[in-house]
Design a protein that fits this description.
By secondary structure, the chain is mainly alpha-helical. It contains 8 helices and 2 strands; from the N terminus they run αββααααααα. The longest helix has 18 residues.
């Protein structure tokens, strides 16, 4: 009888201890309390980008746009926010779908157009990326961030000469931008190795 009570006590203690343990290492993106924490191998940043990229990745512009209605993208389940989330999670097909919906709902949303263009780059749909970059430039002008992304797009395609031309324009607009400099360094390295960027 004593052995049975002791076993029951140990069993209850183990169950209580296990109940306090986390059983999974999966973190839900919307549960992340630190906006600067990495999400799916990419870093978030508060300086105006969906994805402050590791070296060689495009900077996707975020923040207020001239045409914002004040609500665009602020609701957690908006297409813009879902597009950003899927982009951070490297689910570029889903990101494209939500960014496309966002531009259909708000055709003057610069942030959605840049996200759509970056998603098309990741899907290697460069013809569609060109259209989205063109629309982003029509809406916001040739900003350093948009030109940097567009230059990186040409780098992905293996068009090094066009990439250099656009990245140099970006650098003229923002000479101290480390992402532009990083893309120029990658470009120089690809010229030296005569190898395309993946």
């Amino acid at each position: 009888m004593r052995v049975g009570v002791a076993r029951a006590f140990v069993l209850v203690a183990c169950v209580m201890w296990l109940a306090g343990c986390e059983t999974t290492g999966v973190k839900l993106p919307w549960a992340n309390s630190d906006p600067n924490a990495p999400a799916a191998e990419s870093n978030s940043d508060t300086t105006g980008s969906i994805n402050t990229p590791p070296p060689g990745e495009p900077v996707v512009v975020t923040g207020p746009t001239p045409s914002s209605t004040g609500l665009s993208g602020e609701e957690p389940k908006s297409d813009l926010q879902l597009g950003k989330r899927y982009y951070r999670e490297n689910q570029f097909g889903n990101a494209e779908k939500h960014f496309r919906r966002a531009v259909e709902q708000s055709p003057k949303d610069l942030e959605a157009w840049v996200g759509l263009a970056a998603s098309y780059d990741k899907l290697k749909r460069f013809d569609l990326a060109d259209r989205a970059y063109g629309q982003a430039i029509r809406l916001g002008g040739p900003t350093a961030e948009i030109l940097n992304n567009q230059g990186y797009s040409y780098l992905l395609r293996g068009d090094r000469h066009r990439a250099r031309q656009i990245l140099m324009q970006a650098q003229q607009r923002d000479p101290r931008n480390p992402y532009i400099q990083n893309n120029l360094d990658m470009l120089d390295e690809s010229f030296a190795k005569r190898k395309d960027v993946n």
